[in-house]
Amino acid sequence: MAFSRLLLPNIRGLPRAFWLLVSASLIDRIGGFAGPYLAIYLTARTDVATAGLIVSTMALGGLIGAPLGGALADRVGRRPILIGGLLATACSWVNVAFTSGTASLTFAVFLAGVASSVPRPAMAAAISDCVPEDDRRRADGFHYWTINLGFAVAEAVTGL
């Protein structure tokens, strides 16, 4: 019993808003299977170098999207950036699914990378806003654990 307490965070007593945010984060990360799946799909359709170039633009978009999302969350507010960013992520991946041509697909994947990174700073800030200061450390730890769980599930889905 004591060993499990070392491994698992104490999550009792955290506010309802925290659970809503963490659930949204989990779903967002599970939806992240699109990136690895895109790499698998493209290597079957084109050469490896082209597939690598296209998929790498997603990471480049993420480098732009995260600071942009943080700045927008501070200016506009956490909720609009969270909702808008998550909707933009879904729409951008639908756009990728219906895009053809190397240049168009590269740009669409770049935009998907930007969109998928925009809500992440707002999510972290919103969690800090709704959780009392004494509980933030364990709330952030559980959020981090949830992100990793979502990523693991996403990769397993990609394998299927």
Shape, please? Answer: globular
- Structure summary, number of beta strands: 0
Number of helices: 8
Uncertain parts: none
What composes the largest sheet?
Answer: none
Q: Termini, distance in Å?
A: 35 Å
Helical/strand content category: mainly alpha
Mean pLDDT: 89
Alpha carbon gyration radius = 17 Å
Proportion of residues in helical segments: over 70%
* SSE string, helices as H and strands as E: HHHHHHHH
Strand content: under 5%
List keywords for this structure.
160 residues; mainly alpha; 8 helices; 83% helix; 0% strand
Provide a descriptive summary of the structure in words.
32% of the residues are buried. The model has no long low-confidence stretch (mean pLDDT 89). It is globular and about 50 Å long. By secondary structure, the protein is mostly helical. It has helices at 2-7, 16-30, 34-45, 48-75, 78-97, 102-117, 119-130, 136-159. The protein is 83% helix and 0% strand.
